[in-house]
Amino acid sequence: MSTRHRLLSALFSRRAQPMPQLTLFADPASKSLSLSPEKAKAKTARSSSSRAAAYTKRDPDPNLWELHHHQEDMAAASKSRVKAKVEEVEEDNEHTKGDRAKGHPGKRRAESPEGGGVAGKEAKRHKNAYEIKGKVATAEVAAKVDEDPPLNQLTRLLDEKKNSVDKGESVVYWMRMDDMRIEDNTALSQASDRARELGVPLVALFVISPGDYRMHDRSTRRIDFMLRNLRHLKPKLDHLNIPLHVVSFDKRLSIPRKLVTEVFPHLKTTHVFVNIEYEVDELRRDIATVKLGRANGIDVVCLHDRLVVPPGRSRVRRGNRCRCSVHGRGVGTVINGIRGVVLMRFRSRNDPSIRNDTHFGKLFDATPIPDQVEGFECADRDQIAEVWPEGTEAAKELQLVSPLSDGAEHDDKNSRVQQYQTGRNLVDGDNSSKLSPYLASGVISARMVLAEARKLNKKGKLESGRDTGLGMWVQEVSWRDFYNHVMSTWPRVSMGRPFLEKFADVQWEVDEDHLNAWKEGRTGFPIVDAAMRACNKRGWMENRVRMVAASFLVKSLMLDWRLGEKHFMENFIDGDLAANNGGWQWTASTGTDPQPYFRIFNTLTQSEKCDPNGDYIRYWVPELKHLKGKAVHDPFHNMPSNEFKKLGYPAPIVDHKQSRERALFRYKNVGEKEA
Ligand SMILES: Cc1cc2nc3c(=O)[nH]c(=O)nc-3n(C[C@H](O)[C@H](O)[C@H](O)COP(=O)(O)OP(=O)(O)OC[C@H]3O[C@@H](n4cnc5c(N)ncnc54)[C@H](O)[C@@H]3O)c2cc1C
Question: Is the pTM of this model over 0.80?
Answer without folding.
Answer: yes
